[in-house]
Amino acid sequence: MAEAARQRIGLYPGTFDPLTNGHLDVIARAARLLDKLIVGVAINTGKGPLFSLEERVELVEAEVAAIAGRNGTVIEVMPMHGLLVQFARSVGAAMIVRGLRAVSDFDYEFQMAGMNYRMDPGVETVFVMASERHQFIASRLVKEVAALGGDISSFVPPLTLERTLAKMRG
């Protein structure tokens, strides 16, 4: 137990519908800071997901395997429900990792970080800036471009590309 208490465990939550190269960038960068990163895939039916929760978990697991292999950090993917700080506590995470792309993200993320801190001061929120080549990528836009027949190959990893195009055709 003492060793587990010393581990730096972080939680990166999101809908990941679909997982983008921007998400993978944040995951890779956060994984370098932690001993273990849990990627929490949110149910979030309110957003009208393209992929089911199970499909999103499977895709994220497949796409992050190479990152974990490269840097030796344990990356675990799991479905997430309920309040974020409660889920973080339940998986032993002392840090919530949030990706920031643009100034427009900051206001919402700042409010969420404040709410989460008020609910549990033992869980810190850490912001990781997406690299400049990924800052504009948003899952919502990727779905929109794909639905209109545009090329999304530079926005998503290969397996996600294949599955997204199959969903759009189906």
Report on this model:
With 170 residues, the protein is an alpha/beta fold. The chain has a single domain, classed as Rossmann fold (3-Layer(aba) Sandwich). Helix content is 47%, strand content 19%. The chain is built from 7 helices and 5 strands, in the order αβαβαβαβαβαα. A 5-stranded parallel β-sheet has the order 3-2-1-4-5, with helices on both faces. Strand 4, helix 5 and strand 5 form a beta-alpha-beta unit. Helix 2 crosses helix 3.
Helix content: 40-55%
Shape: globular
Order of H and E elements: HEHEHEHEHEHH
Distance between the termini: 48 Å
How many distinct beta strands? 5
Q: Tell me the count of domains.
A: 1
Round the mean pLDDT to the nearest integer and report it: 90
Q: What CATH first level would be assigned?
A: Alpha Beta
Q: Helix count, per DSSP?
A: 7
- The CATH architecture can be given as 3-Layer(aba) Sandwich
Main sheet summary: 5 strands, parallel
Note the beta-strand portion. 15-25%
The CATH superfamily turns out to be: HUPs
CA-based gyration radius: 16 Å
Strand order of the largest sheet: 3-2-1-4-5
CATH topology: Rossmann fold
Judged by helices, strands and strand pairing, the structural class is: alpha/beta
